[in-house]
Q: What sequence folds into this?
């Protein structure tokens, strides 16, 4: 054997030696390790260990790839893909899983927990994944770090990097597409995007529209063409890169309403599995905002821009002056579609829709922007067959009615939506098809009649017009309940005009002063004459009063003509010009003669009334002073309209029913006579916070006596946030169903009258069922509620108020100035007598309570009113109408005209206070004396009507200021009757002096009213007027117009041409062009409107500039240019308008805008009460202009907005722009600074009562805000959308001890505020008299 081999005898000894040597070495190593731990520092041990492993690395054949969750600030695409991919590789050996599901997901999501391992096999080799989470030790504020470790054999490195990981990415993308829930994005739903696809600027709902290409009623060839084009687009990514074009495609869908444009968009989204972004150009004010919005959209998406022809802010480049980033322009839009910005994002479809392709700018229509033009026309035979298959299940054409229907469809213009609506009317196929036949025949008959009557219409209209003109020439004897109001208004104007000392007025001063004297003598007994005439129904007195009214109107027109002549005369005042242009002798002669005739007639009328009423007339100044000196006891709001008495049990009962509702749709009926409080009960339930939390969707619909099913559905959609422009009935119902699908909703149908409820059955069939959805119906007719599905056990019949509750409600109103307590014991008996006559009806009690609020607290005055109430009841046993009539009779003269203004508005119309006040000022209804502010006087008139409970409050601002209102239907009955009798307004529009502008106006209404005083837009909220050219051209023929309100109107004729004609209306005192599109500039013809007191061009986004002649309107009191996104500045010289009281939307000119008005000019506007400022950069405030506001001593309300501002210097400039110390209310929005302005402190603003801070970057209040030995007098505070502002409730209360209202929303950093969900929807905190706080049921401005 070889010598180096162990022998058998030696083996045990050798093994023993080896074990002995190993044990000795191990002991030595343990000793060395123990010594190292005891004597070597931790850092040295680590260094030695690292050096050892570096010099002698362990041998391994595996490679580990670490895949972190983040790559810098960006998410790691591989990590996200691995997380999704590994869900499919979970094996039964896995011990811990994470399971979750969001509210919008349809399935559970399962993923591995930290530390778990997952094995995978790829191309016959094994890989191991492990999910690792680590928590940082030294930074407890940092979140845990997550990563995946992928381990495999080193020899497969190239395969893993080049094939496996791309495979994981591809499979993850497939899984995402399979699980993807399509989204419909809109900017009106902030912070509502769970999956993050909206990128912060968008909110979303799941897009669950059922439309597909299989259900679309399109021609097969057209359908195939669209699908082929979409498929070709999807697979052409490399082609687009090759030719250098952005990977996107534009589609234009055009055709009549109801032809399926929206359904086609949904079908495309479902086919491609693309999200949809609903882009509303009307809400975007500049190119930069548009750019930010579009950049925040994701790839694989569809942009939808509906009704592109109605987007008034899209300006034609021919009318503009190139691209500017400060406004939204057509060039800006086009630049994003195929300009430099078009490369930002891939795989996008852009869909435009329009009903009128011919109205679009050619620049939009060319390829590259709208690549494919798809005409969706009326229903075809193939479309009908598909609809019959979808709706009725008829798969072939063998039905006996098919042939007749096909013939009718070929000869009738009917949309697919209309056909679908008819097919939905019955589940029986025969009945549905027969109904469709009847419908098509009616359509054909209407069309034939229109063709036949086309030629005869003109002759018929001419005949009717001739009759109308003949009627206009006849004497009209209308009863007059408001002659005293007409006299009051005229005397106010006459006194003001005589004080001006104009030349032509002075020519006839004797006649005017005689007229003034006669009318002042008559004024004291005109109210009694009105009441006597109404009660006696004597036609002689009725005719006398009507003649007097018409004479006064004529005298007022003569007075206005004299003023105009004087203005023209002033322009020719130079002597040599008088030689060239001699005085108008014909005007002087005619005017003098007519004034003498009017005076003689009025004197005879005065004597006639005196004899008729047996009232002696004495020329005693004390009598005149008594009559003229009466004024309202309360000028501002006194009564809190939110107070309700005796209805708590009613609301609790209905709320309990709603909470118990589960299956189907619960129908609740609130039934009772008018004035019983049905609507009030429904409103209390509707606005209750508990109900807000229970129902995901709430809709309130006021059902007028004259309504259509389409109007009802549009009203429902408006409450859901959808304007529904251009949709027909079928599409409207489908939209409603889509919005409500899967939601618990509450629908209130208020004041339903008609017993024909077929419309309701059709709507109800289309509403989703279940989940506790409910409907509340208020009606006076129990039969109506039963037909609408209310069961007997769900009827609620409000009871009359008890005697105690009636007296309590009366006291809260009649004695509101003393907190609802009667401080005069001698008035209690007569007060209770008045209340008893109201029979427990809340509306009657409120009406008489509001009337008594303005009565002097004397027994004689209250007894006189009680007797008058008794007399009214003797003629009309309806206590509500009697109380309303008496309240109207007792109105001051000037308030009667204001009250009759409500007759112009449609039923249940919500009216803005601003429009009413501007109208009243423009027509002179508001008495203004002794230099008093006209705006203040107008608002006092409004308060006079609301305090009397003749007008209902709808919306309030955060500080309880009323902003919108409406009138009860019983009040409307009274006001329409009074307006008809006084020729103030008539529903047929004939022979009256005031008209509401609406789409269905007739030409004869204007021709027959050559002396109209006011034409106003009276559309309901979210609606617009569409005015034909034949109507608009007649506006300028109303030569004595004082008020012209064209707001929210679209005109068939060019707006510029209409405004040129309006320039001839030199009597105009109020002109509103608010939200009138497309207003780009004011023509020079308007320069003649020197009598303008109010000019409103707000919300005219295309308005580029105001003409310089604006500064020559010396009588201007209100100038509103707010929300005019394209307006850069107002013209220089604005400081000359010394009578200006309201200036909104003022944007100061920059230093390089030499024609613009600088902020320093505001120093001269010493009568300003309301000022709205808009800043975008520091250059708009010069260093010597920071004191421009400090001496505006009349200023009560100041608004400062820094929306879309840029540059850090603006913060420093605004910080020095001190407001006047007597400021009452301040609004600060979009302020860019981190801390509030230094002047926002109690020492600088010691009189401030109302403060609103919204949006912007404010994180904390400046230290001066907390005062130094001073406290705020603020009573109401609003904080809105201040995501970074940190405030403590205790600190705030200490510095604002007078605080009684706090409205806070979207402010997550507010601490310990007593408002639920203050970081999201928020609410209102109110401090009551008993010093306890509670959260109000809803925000004031809901």
A:
């Amino acid at each position: 054997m070889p010598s180096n081999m162990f022998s058998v005898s030696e083996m045990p000894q050798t093994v023993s030696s080896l074990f002995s040597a190993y044990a000795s070495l191990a002991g030595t190593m343990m000793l060395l390790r123990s010594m190292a731990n005891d004597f070597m520092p931790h850092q040295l041990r680590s260094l030695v260990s690292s050096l050892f492993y570096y010099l002698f690395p362990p041998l391994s054949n595996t490679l580990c790839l670490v895949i972190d969750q983040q790559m810098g600030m960006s998410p790691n695409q591989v990590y996200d893909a691995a997380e999704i991919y590994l869900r499919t590789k979970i094996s039964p050996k896995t011990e811990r899983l994470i399971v979750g599901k969001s509210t919008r997901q349809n399935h559970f999501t399962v993923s591995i927990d930290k530390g778990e391992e997952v094995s995978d096999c790829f191309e016959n080799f094994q890989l191991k994944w492990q999910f690792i989470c680590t928590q940082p030790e030294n930074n407890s504020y940092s979140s845990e770090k997550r990563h995946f470790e992928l381990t495999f054999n080193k020899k497969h490195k190239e395969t893993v990097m080049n094939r496996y990981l791309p495979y994981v990415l591809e499979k993850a993308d497939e899984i995402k597409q399979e699980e993807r829930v399509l989204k419909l994005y809109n900017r009106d739903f902030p912070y509502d995007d769970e999956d993050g696809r909206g990128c912060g600027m968008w909110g979303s709902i799941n897009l669950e529209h059922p439309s597909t290409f299989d259900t679309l009623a399109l021609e097969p060839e057209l359908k195939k063409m669209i699908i082929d084009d979409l498929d070709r687009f999807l697979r052409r990514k490399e082609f687009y890169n090759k030719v250098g074009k952005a990977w996107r495609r534009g589609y234009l869908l055009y055709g009549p309403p109801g032809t399926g444009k929206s359904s086609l968009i949904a079908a495309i989204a479902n086919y491609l599995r693309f999200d949809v972004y609903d882009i509303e150009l009307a809400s975007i004010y500049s190119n930069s905002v548009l750019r930010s919005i579009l950049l925040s959209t994701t790839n694989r998406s569809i942009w939808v821009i509906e009704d592109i022809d109605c987007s008034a802010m899209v300006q034609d480049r021919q009318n503009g002056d190139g691209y500017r980033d400060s406004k939204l322009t057509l060039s800006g839009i086009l630049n994003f579609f195929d300009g430099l910005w078009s490369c930002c994002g891939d795989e996008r479809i852009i869909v435009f829709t329009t009903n009128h392709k011919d109205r679009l700018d050619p620049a939009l229509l060319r390829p590259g922007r709208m690549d494919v033009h798809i005409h969706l026309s009326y229903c075809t035979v193939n479309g009908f067959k598909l609809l019959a298959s979808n709706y009725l299940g008829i798969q072939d054409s063998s039905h006996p009615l098919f042939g007749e229907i096909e013939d009718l469809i070929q000869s009738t213009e009917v949309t697919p939506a209309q056909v679908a609506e008819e097919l939905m009317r019955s589940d029986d196929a025969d009945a549905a098809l027969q109904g469709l036949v009847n419908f098509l025949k009616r359509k054909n008959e209407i069309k034939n009649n229109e063709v036949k009557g086309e030629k005869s219409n003109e002759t018929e209209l001419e005949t009717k017009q001739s009759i109308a003109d003949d009627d206009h020439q006849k004497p009209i004897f209308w009863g007059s309940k408001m002659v005293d109001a007409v006299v009051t208004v005229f005397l106010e104007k006459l006194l003001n005009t005589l004080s001006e000392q104009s030349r032509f007025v002075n020519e006839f001063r004797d006649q005017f002063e005689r007229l003034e004297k006669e009318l002042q003598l008559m004024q004291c007994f005109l109210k009694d004459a009105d009441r006597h005439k109404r009660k006696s129904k004597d036609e002689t007195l009725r005719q006398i009063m009507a003649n007097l009214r018409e004479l006064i109107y004529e005298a007022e027109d003569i007075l206005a003509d004299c003023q105009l002549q004087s203005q023209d005369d002033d322009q020719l005042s130079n002597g040599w010009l008088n030689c060239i242009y001699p005085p108008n002798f014909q005007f002087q002669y005619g005017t003098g003669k007519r004034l003498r005739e009017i005076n003689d007639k009025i004197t005879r009328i005065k004597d006639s009334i005196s004899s008729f009423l047996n009232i002696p007339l004495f020329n005693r100044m004390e009598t005149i002073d008594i009559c003229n000196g009466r004024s309202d006891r309360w000028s501002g709001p006194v009564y809190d309209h939110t107070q309700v008495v005796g209805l708590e049990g009613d609301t609790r009962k209905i709320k309990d029913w709603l909470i118990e509702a589960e299956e189907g749709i619960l129908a609740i009926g609130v039934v009772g006579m008018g004035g019983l409080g049905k609507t009030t009960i429904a409103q209390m339930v509707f606005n209750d916070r508990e109900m807000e939390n229970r129902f995901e969707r709430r809709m309130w619909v006021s059902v007028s006596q004259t309504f259509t099913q389409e109007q009802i559905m549009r009203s429902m959609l408006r409450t859901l946030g959808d304007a529904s422009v251009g949709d027909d009935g079928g599409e409207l119902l489908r939209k409603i169903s889509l919005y409500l699908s899967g939601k618990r909703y509450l629908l209130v149908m208020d004041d339903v009258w008609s017993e024909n409820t077929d419309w309701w059955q059709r709507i109800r069939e289309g509403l989703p069922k279940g989940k506790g959805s409910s409907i509340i119906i208020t009606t006076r007719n129990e039969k109506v509620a039963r037909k609408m599905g209310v069961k007997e056990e769900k009827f609620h019949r409000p009871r009359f108020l008890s005697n105690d509750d009636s007296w309590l409600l009366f006291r809260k109103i009649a004695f509101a100035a003393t907190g609802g307590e009667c401080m005069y014991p001698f008035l209690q008996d007569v007060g209770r007598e008045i209340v008893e006559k109201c029979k427990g009806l809340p509306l009657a009690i409120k009406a008489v309570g509001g009337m008594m609020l303005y009565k002097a607290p004397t027994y004689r005055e209250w007894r006189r009113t009680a007797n008058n109430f008794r007399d009214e009841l003797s003629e009309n046993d309806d206590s509500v109408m009697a109380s309303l009539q008496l309240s109207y009779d007792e109105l001051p003269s000037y308030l009667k005209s204001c009250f009759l203004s409500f007759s112009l508005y449609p039923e249940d119309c919500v009216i803005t206070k601003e429009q009413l006040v501007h109208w009243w000022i423009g027509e002179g209804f508001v008495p203004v004396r002794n230099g008093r502010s006209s705006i203040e006087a107008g608002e006092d008139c409004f308060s006079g009507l609301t305090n009397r409970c003749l007008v209902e409050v709808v919306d309030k601002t955060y500080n309880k200021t009323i902003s919108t209102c409406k009138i009860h239907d019983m009040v409307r009955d009274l006001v329409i009757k009074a307006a008809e009798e006084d020729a103030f307004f008539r529903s047929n529009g004939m022979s009256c002096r005031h008209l509401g502008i609406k789409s269905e106006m007739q030409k004869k209404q204007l021709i027959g009213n050559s002396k109209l005083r006011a034409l106003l837009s009276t559309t309901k909220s979210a609606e617009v007027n569409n005015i034909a050219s034949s109507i608009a051209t007649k506006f300028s023929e109303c030569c004595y117009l004082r008020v012209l309100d064209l707001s929210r109107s679209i005109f068939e004729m060019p707006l510029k041409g209409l405004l040129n004609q309006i320039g001839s209306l030199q009597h105009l005192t109020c002109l509103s062009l608010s939200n009138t599109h497309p207003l780009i500039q004011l023509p020079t013809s308007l320069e003649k409107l020197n009598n303008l007191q109010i000019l409103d061009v707000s919300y005219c986004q295309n308005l580029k500039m105001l003409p310089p002649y604006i500064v020559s309107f010396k009588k201007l009191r209100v100038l509103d240019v707010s929300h005019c996104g394209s307006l850069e500045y107002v013209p220089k010289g604005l400081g000359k308008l010394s009578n200006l009281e309201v200036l909104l939307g003022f944007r100061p000119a920059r230093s390089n805008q030499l024609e613009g008005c600088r902020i320093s000019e505001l120093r001269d506007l010493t009568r300003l009460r309301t000022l709205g400022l808009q800043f975008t950069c520091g250059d708009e405030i010069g260093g010597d202009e920071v004191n421009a506001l400090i001496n505006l001593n009349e200023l009560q309300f100041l608004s400062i907005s820094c929306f879309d501002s840029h540059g850090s210097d603006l913060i420093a400039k605004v910080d020095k722009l001190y407001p006047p110390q007597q400021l009452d209310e301040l609004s600060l929005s979009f302020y860019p600074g981190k801390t509030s302005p230094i002047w926002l402190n109690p020492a600088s603003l010691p009189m401030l009562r109302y403060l609103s801070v919204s949006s912007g970057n404010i994180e904390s209040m400046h230290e001066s805000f907390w005062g130094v030995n001073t406290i705020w007098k603020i009573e109401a505070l609003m904080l809105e959308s201040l995501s970074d502002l940190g405030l403590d409730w205790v600190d705030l209360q200490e510095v604002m001890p007078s605080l009684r209202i706090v409205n806070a929303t979207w402010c997550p950093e507010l601490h310990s505020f007593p408002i639920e969900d203050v970081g999201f929807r928020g609410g209102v905190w109110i401090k009551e008299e008993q010093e306890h706080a509670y959260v109000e049921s809803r925000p004031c401005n809901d």
Notes: The radius of gyration is 39 Å. The CA atoms of residues 364 and 370 lie 7 Å apart. The chain has a mean pLDDT of 80. The longest helix spans residues 429-473.
